[in-house]
Amino acid sequence: xxxxxxxxxxxxxxxxxxxxxALALAREGLDVRLLDAARLPAWSAGDPDxxxxxxxxxxxxxxxxxxxxxxxxxARAQPYRRxxxxxxxxxxxxxxxxxxxxRPGLGWIVENxxxxxxxxxxxxxxxxxxxxxxxVEALEQGAEAAVLRLEDGTAVAARIVVAADGAASPLRRMxxxxxxxxxxxxxxxxxxxxxxxxxxxxxxxxxxxTGPLALLPWVDGACSIVWTLPADEATRILALDDxxxxxxxxxxxxxxxxxxxxxxxxxxxxxxxxxxxxxxxxRVLVVGDAAHAVHPLAGQGVNLGLxxxxxxxxxxxxxxxxxxxxxAPHRLARWARARRSDSAVAAYxxxxxxxxxxxxxxxxxxxxxxxxxxxxxxxxxxALFWRRAxxx
Length: 392
Known about the structure:
The two termini are 38 Å apart. The longest helix is centred in the C-terminal third of the chain and has 29 residues, at 329-357. The protein has 2 domains: 7-73 and 114-181 and 273-353, 3-Layer(bba) Sandwich (FAD/NAD(P)-binding domain), CATH 3.50.50.60; 78-111 and 184-272 and 361-389, D-Amino Acid Oxidase, Chain A, domain 2, CATH 3.30.9.10. Helix 1 packs parallel to helix 4. It has helices at residues 16-27, 57-65, 69-75, 112-125, 170-174, 231-238, 242-252, 301-322, 329-357, 362-376, 379-389; strands spanning 7-12, 32-35, 52-55, 78-80, 82-87, 94-97, 107-111, 129-131, 136-141, 146-150, 155-163, 179-195, 202-207, 213-217, 222-230, 260-276, 280-281, 284-286, 292-293. The strands form 3 sheets. Strands 1, 2, 8, 9, 10, 11, 17 and 18 form an 8-stranded mixed beta sheet that branches. The chain has an 8-stranded mixed beta sheet with strand order 6-5-13-14-15-12-16-19. A 3-stranded antiparallel beta sheet has the order 3-7-4. By secondary structure, it is α+β, with helices and mostly antiparallel strands. GO terms for molecular function: 2-octaprenyl-6-methoxyphenol hydroxylase activity; FAD binding. Pfam families: FAD_binding_3 (PF01494). It comes from Luteimonas wenzhouensis. Residues 8-318 form the FAD-binding domain. This is FAD-dependent oxidoreductase.
């Protein structure tokens, strides 16, 4: 088999989830090849990436096990120890506090491009063969291997192929896996801001009828924002000058941290829920955004993708430790069922929260603020919410 199948695993897509998957499986002793159409520009401290992640503790542990986290943290990462969530309609906030939850911290805010850069640097050390640029044009599945036909005419064969090529995933479609898509008609406006009052290492989120606004703590006292708005309103907000944008943002935040001033450029991206019909077909596994895209209000998008990776890595390690086939169909199917179930629960839960809080209908408006405050006064419920968000 080794003579006929050059690689154990071919990962298509070199974003944070794809690169982490290639690195994790290589560290388990598998022969891994990573293919990507175009590598992201190298991270630069002077040009912060507008796309940031709120990494949960379980995924920080994954990156630490891959010997990447120390480099990420040394370059630039911002911890947060508290999270405060409240409704613009009134009521008390729900607060997650690391000390009350007996945790060293709640998570870290990290730039996408920085994380990808550090993962790519680790690939060569782990023996991963990287092909970039490499664009897949066709997929052929066989009993013992899948073959990827590339744009340049070459072919790559592997026992397992991992589709990590984003929400539009051509490879997922080639494998015959469909995806249900629901457009929220919203955009996420992102950028960096400075607030009059310090962020206190706290992630702040306010629910508004138009959608949630999150101010995430960032380095040097700044914050990263993720502001969910109806698409037309997002377009209007993005077109404002800095003074008008500052006024709108300060009002939307309820001036919780005083005046909010923008720092540099800002951008918007469309929001949708997307779930693949399954995460496994033949010899193709689907991970990350290729498998599931969720509303950003809970910051769980990349966390779900990295949990796909951690679960696959752990399953491979268990199988190899027992001396059984790590790529046996029943094992891959079990991984796929568990991961799709977890991501579907998360996707619909976030969608439900968005629907509940992002409207001004009288009954939900009357009930949701007090309900949020009540939940915040029940420590076991707060701990349960946090364990779910932290991947415990």
